[in-house]
Amino acid sequence: MAKHTQETLCFHPVNGKTVRADFNGGELSSDFGALLLRETATHSGLIPRLVNAIQDKRHQSYIDHSMQDLLMQRVLQMACGYQDANDSNHLRKDPMFKLAVGRSPLSAEAHLASAPTYTRLGKDLSRRDIHSLAYAFAEHFINSYKKPPKLAIIDLDHTASLTHGAQQYSLFNTKYGNTCYLPLMIFEGLSGKLITAILRPGKTPSGQENAAIVKRLLALIRQSWPKTHLIIRGDSHFAQPELMQVVEQDKAADYVLGKGAGHPTALRPQSDESMAEARRCLQERTANARSNDLAIPYRVRIYGEANYQAKSWKGLNTRVIYKAEVNQMGDNPRFVVTSITNASAQCIHEQFYCPRGQDENYIKHLKNDLSCDRTSDMSFRANALRMYYACAAYVMHYEMRAIALKGTELEKAQPSTVIAKLFKIAVKVVEYKDRVKLHLPSSNPMKEVLQRITETFTALPFPKPG
């Protein structure tokens, strides 16, 4: 039955005039940022690399959407803040997304893929495809450098991706108190570039698993960077002899890993003398500050090296560094195990280990802004593909900031800020026979930034096909 009732939105009167809204504005879009991301993707080369990683088993006679178009569409949607595949049912008709994918924006025959297409893609993915996608991200990271760097820091960190159904390989993790996946996220610590990511079951990884992943990654990096000094960095659940042995086998690599204090009579007594000295020092400074009406110091830190070797570390050249910290809240000792021999304890802890906290911010960008933890599919491989959509969106945001937003107020902005200020801009699309015209709001506050972005991209040489 035909629907004749007009969809109208009603508001309270303004200045004595009634206010009504309808959905008859024509070819409008709220996502101008999709075209900005297309410019980034064009110069990036990541999407073609991901396309080549997936073995397309579909019968070519029945394909309406190429693998290039499918990945491009989904990554652009994720990068613009649309986390769910169901959003494709509406965005497939959006003129800006169609234009960004390379299709005619106003043609009814050029609509993009819908949610069922992405469901089938996730189900058809093989184990080899997932493995190849992980390698594709690492290869893109390596190729993002014009020449091998002298130093690269490989930050390892697991993060919980909570599940709320019967997802495949979803397991209960006592640390997070929930069923989850526990993906491994790997970043370059100096730049914040994503190296790769691996979706994992919810259990804590063994030393053999972590060592196998690091070994494959080091082998791939060494093919292009044979002399680059690599530092493997992670928290205490990476301080495993299997992983440390793999790193020590590489003569140009070191590790800086957190170390739990373990049994109270094992490692912790190594720092007792320094802890006692830190307590006395804090008490004296606090008393002096109060007697002179000065600000009370919050903490005192003393660094040292422990004479400690675990039985499982036999044959490894390890040092255990400790930070004996006492603050107004109590004792806060910390331990780090490292293979670096030519740096002081304070230097290793403050300059090498502590900066790994920035890794948490990168993960927050992936989870909070780009929804990499939206792993709600029943299939493990489909959830891995969902995670890689978000990872590709992270790379797009990073490269856009590095290329086009350098020197602007958004140079170091997190993805959600870029989405709100640059991407969510209303645009009217008009298509002629020989051109497409985009009309933006006259009062847009980001005019100068948008002008600079487009000038930057147009000045770059257009990549050759293939």
List keywords for this structure.
466 residues; alpha+beta; 9-stranded mixed sheet; 3-stranded antiparallel sheet; 15 helices; 17 strands; 39% helix; globular
Commentary on this structure:
With 466 residues, the protein is of the alpha+beta class. It has 15 helices and 17 strands. The strands form four sheets. Strands 4, 8, 9, 10, 11, 12, 13, 14 and 15 form a nine-stranded mixed sheet that branches. A three-stranded antiparallel sheet has the order 3-16-17, with no helix packed on it. It has a three-stranded antiparallel sheet with strand order 5-7-6, with no helix packed on it. A hairpin with a 2-residue loop joins strand 1 and strand 2. Helix 3 crosses helix 13. It is globular, with a radius of gyration of 26 Å. The mean pLDDT is 92.
Nearest-integer average pLDDT: 92
Helical coverage, percent range: 25-40%
Shape: globular
What percentage of the residues does DSSP assign to strands (E)? 15-25%
Question: How large is the count of helical segments?
Answer: 15
Uncertain parts: none
Q: Decide which structural class fits the backbone.
A: alpha+beta
The profile of the biggest β sheet is: 9 strands, mixed
In total, how many beta strands? 17
Report how far apart the termini are. 49 Å
Radius of gyration from the alpha-carbon trace, in angstroms? 26 Å
In short:
With 466 residues, the protein is an alpha+beta fold. 39% of the residues lie in helices and 19% in strands.
